[in-house]
From TrEMBL, chain A:
It comes from the Bacteria. PANTHER family: MALTOSE/MALTODEXTRIN TRANSPORT SYSTEM PERMEASE PROTEIN MALF, MALTOSE_MALTODEXTRIN TRANSPORT SYSTEM PERMEASE PROTEIN MALF. This is Maltose/maltodextrin transport system permease protein. Coiled coil: none annotated. It is a multi-pass membrane protein. Belongs to the binding-protein-dependent transport system permease family. MalFG subfamily. GO terms for biological process: maltodextrin transmembrane transport. SUPFAM superfamilies: MalF N-terminal region-like, MetI-like.
UniProtKB/TrEMBL annotation, chain B:
One of its GO terms (biological process) is maltodextrin transmembrane transport. This is Arabinogalactan oligomer / maltooligosaccharide transport system permease protein. Pfam families: BPD_transp_1. Its main location: membrane. It comes from Cryobacterium flavum. Belongs to the binding-protein-dependent transport system permease family. MalFG subfamily. The chain crosses the membrane at residues 30-48, 87-111, 123-146, 166-185, 206-229, 265-286.
Amino acid sequence: MRTDDTDVSTTKPSKRQHRAAMVAEAASGGLKAILVKMALLGVVDAVALYGLFILFLQQQWLIFALVALVTLVVNWIYFTPGKLPAKYLTPGVIFLVVFQIFVVGYTAYIGFTNYSTGHNSDKAQAISALMSSAQERVPDSPSYAVTVLDQFGTLSFLVTDPGGEVSLGSADSPLAPVNDATITGGEAVGLDGYTTLSFQDILSRTAEITALTVPFSDDPNDGALRTNDGSSAYLYLSSLVYDEQADTMTDAQTGTVFSDTGDGAFVSATGEEMLPGWRINVGFDNFARAFTEKGIRTPLISVTLWTITFAALSMATTFFLGLFLAIVFNDMRMKGRKFYRVAMILPYAFPAFLSALVWAGMLSESFGFVNQVLLGGAQIPWLTNEWLAKISILVVNLWLGFPYMFLVCTGALQSIPAELEEAATVDGARPWAVFRLIKLPLLLVSVAPLLIASFAFNFNNFNLIYMLTGGGPRDAAADVNVGATDILISMVYKVAFTGQARDYGLASAFSIIIFILVAVISVIAFRKTKALEELNR
Amino acid sequence: MTSVDEGTRVIPQKRPFTFKRWFGRTGWRHAIGIVMVVFSGFPLLYVLSASLNPQGTLTGSNELFSQVGFEAYARILNSPDAPFAQWFGNTIVIAGTTSILTVFLGALAAYSFSRMRFTGRRVGLLTLVLVQMFPQLLAVVAIFLVMSTIGDLFPAIGLNTQVGLIMVYLGGALGVNTYLMYGFFNTIPSSIDEAAKIDGASHARIFFTIILRLVAPILAVVGLLSFIATTNDFVVASVLLIDPEKQTLAVGLYKLVSNPNYADWSAFSAGAVLAALPVMALFLYLQKYIVGGLTAGSDK
């Protein structure tokens, strides 16, 4: 940092200076700039107001409060003079906070829940889902005249019961009487603030309308109204009975009682679980599973070790090949260096995800180029044998990564002053000694931060692993979907997003373990290289 | 000058060419160079050959350039179950928007860090360095759940929308990019700003009309790096984009050849060539700046 700047920060401007700066600032902004600013803020505020309105309707009070607060702060920052740093930082910081910092915190939260397929809503929603999935039409149900209404995309039923009483309800709010409906021929057909769906609309939204179940009352045991044609509805009752006092679900047909045992689902006496269940906090259960269940612990340990080995070896192999090539081609007498240089950069310029896919084809066991042509029809399981797959991954990553290291090392070598080499040669040092004692230490100083970056990148090099081997070959002894070449991030992805059972809770617990590992490794790395020193200058 | 000197002055004669000496000096370097050119160039040659092979199978692609035709290109562009042209367009739109906004947000932040002194500045810079150690994909599960919640409330920006995906990518806009730009902003003398300020220019005018033009090289580098990173992203894109016609090249092409033995390998190769050509052309064209940008901050 330049020293004159620090002076500015230490001496606070006097009040007069401050006011003078304000006047100058105000005078210098053109009318056009002010108009642009107003237009942008107007758009932001309009979007925010629309969002607040929707949140208000959905009764999401926490998010409502947060959006309102952020909108107010943004307006305050841009409408009051001064606060320049905030004016420049706010847009980026909002995205950073929501999609980088908040999601990390949210990951930590999910890691302590049982969030997974079958456990992804709250208890009330789970109960209503269970009840409605077991619904059957009451045989002697009266016919209710129904008009389907729309309000901002949410459908409601306007119901006229056989006795002429009019009520309104939607999937989330049970039927409640209304007085001010428009009535034609003894049947309610419209309501202020709602749009009545025309016959055409009903046809185009049939699927949505037939799937809609409107609870008859607050008590889920009273059943719900459903319609098949958008004009007459019938009462449906669930074969399950929910007892709110005892907090149990009873199957009316078999008489089995399912009760809430605190595991996030209704469980019968014989241990049978009713799904969907709901989301609960399970404390350290996910971590306990990761560290104590053998079917998870063993793969977790081997995956962690492989992740570190893979990242370290990838960094080392690419660096040494790159350095070697940089030395070989750093000779002025050599002709055609430019050609070699461009040819060797090609793998780096080719999009990485495509490279992995192409190599996967070339290394295919029965049809790939390597086995069929280079090795004359051999059947070598390059990607399906545990050890060969690991070697293949390292070779492909060498292909992907050496050009970068070659470029970096060439640059670093050329920036070492030639006098050093000359002086050493005059003193009688042999070329190897010059390299080992003079060039290499200087080179390492400048490329060390890049080596750390390379390690960090490979630590999470999801694309290569997932597209080349898919993490395979699968580890048959493991309880989670994980293979011999999986690294931590690909294991998280597979546990959370592939297969029938998606276990977000366990995957997030794994993510937290990665966070801690990365933090520890980076602290060590930064201590060693003092890369952060520059900030203190 | 004496006559002795005259007599001993040797006029260096061109020594006759011997293979041994040539090999000892530069020849072996060429040998290594040829090996490396084959190693790095071969897979690319293989893709090109496979894309020109009309047959389609992986085995058929093994005889390099045995057949040359553009049927595979026609197939990938008209395939009903692989909307390649749409993936291509989506990728350009998503990566383009992301990189432009990333550059803009990053430049705003870098300007304030470089030119202003305020409480929390050092902490802010430190946070940026730390944040880049934790890439977004580590929190992909949380991102998915957050976006599906947002999607329930605001379907236009939630799960399965490209706007939502771009917003998620912008979460990473401040970070390594800002740090790169911050270093470059510091190399522009602040006397330029001060002169403009004295002439009556506002901070916004200084930023938009003076500083941004002076730092154009780093803006190009950051934009290109962000474009390439976004194009290569599979994790977040595959989780957030569900409909095939909304997906990006990385997700779509992966699904196309998730089992290479049975896939239409030529069509995939043709798609790969089409997808890679613009990126490679741009990269080779700008390689000098990119290499400079990548190593910035390392040797100071």
